Amino acid sequence: MAQEDKPTSSLMHPSSSYTFLLNIMSKRRTWACLFFFVYGTLLASSWNFLQSTLSWYNLQVQSSTSAWPALYASVLLGTVFGLLSMVATLMVMVPAVLVMWITVVVLLAFFGKPRRTLVVEGRKITGEIFGK
């Protein structure tokens, strides 16, 4: 019996590293720092990519007279920066949609909707938001 109590007590009390991680990640300051770190990294890497593409383009222009290097460089840069813009938009959109969804469900609960109706309405709202 004593051996059976030990596993259940360890399940009820999470480890100190887990609680420390939860405590850190629950702070708004941590998420703001992660946000700026990710965007700073994206900005720095895109700047380096832009510089390397432009140096490649300058080398190609000096050695060739065709217009293909300019077309290739513009398509490559447009694709990369378009993808970066879409990723940035998704990173901003997802938390905004979650806040909006939670707000609507809480307002529905506040006005006395039963739980089953809240689940159905929540699924409808999610489908409308994500275009399903």
UniProtKB/TrEMBL annotation:
Spans traversing the lipid bilayer: 31-50, 70-87, 94-112
What species is this protein from? Vigna radiata var. radiata
Tell me what this protein is called. Uncharacterized protein LOC106754923
Q: Does the keyword Membrane apply?
A: yes
Q: Which UniProt keywords apply?
A: Membrane, Transmembrane, Transmembrane helix
Judging by the UniProt lineage, the source's domain of life is Eukaryota
